[in-house]
Amino acid sequence: MKWGQSQFVHYHVIGVHEGKATVSSTGAGFADVKDRVEIDFLWDLAQGLIGDAKFQNTASSTSNLRDSVPQCLPPVLKGAFEFYDVRKIEAGPSLSLKLLVTTSYPIVEVAKSCTASRRAEPAKVVDRPEELVVPSPMGFAMGARDTVELQYHKQSQHIVFRKNGWVWTFVPTAANK
Q1: What strand order describes the sheet that includes 96-105?
Q2: Are the CB atoms for 169 and 153 separated by under 8 Å?
Q3: pLDDT digit string (tens) for 13-39?
Q4: Which of 146, 135, 143 is nearest to 1 (CA)?
């Protein structure tokens, strides 16, 4: 009932990634990577983003560093690897958010001849835009059916959206502008 009466929603969003990722600028070397970002914003159900979104990045962590060939030397990171740092958020098309995301690769020593030596791969910073769909809390009132990507948890009033190895948990709260 409350979602049918509210035009504005405050969202608190937690994005969590846990999975395999490339850790070098050239694609050599992999790790299990964990990362997290939190986003807060005010949303007009008809118009989209109101004002500026606030976000907080958490440092990426890596484990199980490995080469694509299991018996080869694992990569050695020579600095901090940041898998997913949000740099900017703005209104996107079709009631979505447009995120400017950065991945920062350190210098990485990777296997040169599998088990005998390593070579250094250069550091690199890669910026890319990403679109994050903002699911409407009207799905609670309308009895939206869950899919593999999107689930409405009516009792706890949160929405889970899965995309590209990320689990985005949206916690909407009815708000006044």
Answers
A1: 82-91, 96-105, 124-133
A2: no
A3: 999 999 999 999 999 899 999 999 999
A4: 143
CA distance linking residue 47 with residue 155, whole number of Å: 27
- Would you give the distance in Å from CA 91 to the centre of its chain? 17
Strands (E), the chain: 8-22, 30-44, 48-66, 76-77, 82-91, 96-105, 108-111, 118-121, 124-133, 150-153, 158-163, 166-175
- pLDDT, mean of residues 98-103: 98
What 3-state class would DSSP assign to 2? helix
Q: Closest by alpha carbon to 70, among 115, 33, 102, 112?
A: 115
Q: Check: CB of residue 78 under 8 Å from CB of residue 56.
A: no
Q: Has this prediction a pTM greater than 0.85?
A: yes
pLDDT at 1 over 60: no
